[in-house]
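Incident review: delayed structure delivery

Summary: a single-chain prediction request sat in the queue longer than the usual turnaround. Root cause was a stuck worker, restarted by the on-call engineer. No data loss occurred. The affected request and its eventual output are reproduced below so the record is complete for anyone auditing the incident later.

Affected input:
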Amino acid sequence: MPRESSLNEQILINVTPQETRVAVMELGAVQELHVERTSNRGLVGNIYLGRVGRVLPGMQSAFIEIGLSRAAFLHVADIWSSNKSGEQKPIEKLLHEGQTLVVQVIKDPIGSKGARLTTQISIAGRLLVYLPGDQHIGISQRIEDEAEREHLRERVHHLLPEGADGGFIVRTVAEAATDEELTADIEYLVKLWRGITETAKTAPPQMLLYQDLDLALRVLRDLVSKET
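Output delivered after worker restart:
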């Protein structure tokens, strides 16, 4: 959703019980239109405390119960590992029936297929995406200038609190951000993840731990700028 802002920009938001509509206007003309239907809101990005229902060594996958009508699907390739050698352990060595683990939806259920999951959590802020299980600082592919990419990487690395865990992906909109804005985003995301992990310690299995903002609030987070 992030993109460069321009002068004379307006954002119009219409919210009804059935759906939310957002129009991004520049010089009186519609440049972007976003629609989110209440009944059709996807699950991608949701974080759950899942419970392993069944491990399938032959498919190197597992069915994870997250409170939906159908169990979700977790493939061994989507299980995050800190093993620097890159060698992936078989799923039967990583999971067992009844085990609980924090998972995130990366693909909505389709037809008879359940949602697809990952244990590599990512949480989006306005300027950054936080990766609690990684130490890497990545840059949006939309930022093509190599010197600017390296400059942004160094800025974020310098702003990280001492001993901070996790990595970040710098979003395109961060090119024009101040150090204060980047710091605020880092602190917000780290605090959000800390709250999620604390909740997970005492939460019952299959509980929804985190859900991204709805469309109207995502617009306020991602699109509104000083030029709006």
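Verification: The helical segments are 91-94, 146-159, 179-202, 215-222.
Action items: add queue-age alerting; document worker restart procedure.
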